[in-house]
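The protein record minuted underneath.
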Amino acid sequence: MMKHFTTIFAAAMMMQACQFEDPVLQYPQTQRSDHKDVYFGTEVADPYRWLEDDNSQETAEWVSAQNTLTNDYLSKITFREPLRQRLEQIWNYPKIGVPFKKGGRYYFFKNDGLQNQSVLYVQENLESEPRILLDPNTFTSDGTIALAGISPSPDGRYFAYSISRGGSDWNEILVMDLTNGSMLQDTVKWVKFSGISWFGNGFYYSAYDAPAEGQALSGSNEFHKIKYHQLGASVSDDVVIFEDKANPKRNFYGFVTDDSKFLVVSESQSTSGNALYVKSLDDPKSAFVKIADGYDFDYSVIDHLNGKLLVLTTFNAPMKQLVLIDPANPSFENWTVIIPEAPQVLESVSLAGDFIYAEYLEDANNKGYFFDYTGRKIKQLELPTLGTISGFSGDKGDNVAFYGFTSFTFPSSVYQLNLKTSESSVYAASQVSFDPVAFETEQIFFESKDGTKVPMFIVYKKGMKKNGNNPLLLYGYGGFDVSLTPSFSVSRLPFLEQGGIYVSVNLRGGGEYGKKWHEAGQKLNKQNVFDDFISAAEYLIANKYTKPEKIAVMGGSNGGLLVGAVMTQRPDLFKVAIPIVGVLDMLRYQNFTIGWAWSGDYGRSDDNEEMFRYLYNYSPLHNIKQGVSYPATLAITADHDDRVVPAHTFKFMSELQHKQTGKNPVLVRIETKAGHGAGKPTSKMIEENADMYSFIMKNLGMKPKF
């Protein structure tokens, strides 16, 4: 039985009798067990296995001790509070989301400035006065219950929405009667990775069975299923529409086409590649028809069009193409190509007015084009500058659409588009206190270790001198087909204002250049991602933007893995490391919640010996060495993160504190009543960014003045 830690932690928290500038910290004496696992004949120690138990008293005491140490360190940074005040000041401006039309009404989200959660507004038409429909800030006093999803019924009578508590991926679905604003008794629980799709007097949703007691935030998610809930009926009577009892590690997502003719089901077993099924809703007795096999290619149904399904796919098209598939004759030879594959990635497609709207990604910048239903290009969407189209909404047959646009130095704004005249007008301009003329952005293509050309964006204050002495924040992700495109963030403004350089790298493993770019950073190619990031830092040093003592690296989730890998492979290259909710134990990630679904990108330690050894050789937890001075590290996680469970960070930081040599602090910040990031209250985001950037600035030797 593990020894109780209260007295040990209390003693361990005593700081040495010295001033804050003394860099030696007394870390909690974390218990090390002799636990070992054997992989293909290789013994692997796991001394902190006990920290995987998120319900234990010992883990709770470890969390408390670590937070006490971290808070004590941060509280002594003299500019932390002025930085927090500056963040609060620039955060405090109205933010409006892209309006969308459903059930004959228009909806949009708005945050007045510092509201913990954005408020949902509704209006009968574009000329009528908007009114508040749902204010998540009333759900709880601290803003930790968030609105996770919404779905008005097609007839405009009902409004279903899902909520998330404390940042968890677990959702609950509730239903409002829009005729009088009353709440129905219908409440659906244990919903996860789900939409809400109406049909008849009810809706389809995806869920798991209730988890075993104590396993809600860490237990493996298995036996996903699609159900149908009839309004007014008991949830226990909800009918299972689609499941696979023989394969527990499959996910199912269902939605109904806009004309209510088909139920479409996507079946996946990882984060890329899926099988596709459809069922005619005109005939209740009809069976599901498989339209496409899994799991080598992606298939996304856009809508039902003239008796056929409009599908965006990577099949025979790594950069994606748009095709029409007849559900009655779904074989490949019967497909009709509407928009063929192009040299640029066809990122997304929707229908608006009488057009097909297609969004492309070209060197990590968005372009938008309109096509007719035969695939003939009609016109291009005119954008303010190079950047990111952050949402596009329009309905078939309507003359009005809306879209958002942002770039590194272009605050997010919303535009209204006349689909007949192609004219855009500002619907909601950003009012953030920011002078874009004072900053500039350049895009550089550098050569990675193997000669591959990789792009990155570099943002800095005008007048910056390439003297090799500038503080620099290097950010990346590099996985799961995710593209990093230009976006505006108030949280990094103070860093830029104080002379810092921000760099975003488009690493392999992402989706910036299609399927091949993604595959170049998967499984046995994962080291390419780390090499790209390291090469980016080396380029910035060689070209006098900065030097190793002035570089901070940051990434979240899979980007947290990136930070963990590069800081253990090249600790000499970086001064500060910020791994946020990172995947850091590559031998056991698949054992928790939805971790098994990431094996398509990572592979698994139990796949085969080659895969085990590859993972073992870069797994951040397993590559911390004794006697090495690692960068100043502030790892960030949260107690309700049931996507990447906090045990990854707990174990990694325990090992790092155990082996760290030198003066750089290695600390962990554990947020309470928060999860992987979605739905985090504004107050918590400001506090977290104040802590994170004050840590970065202090350890890069910056002397900010606010």
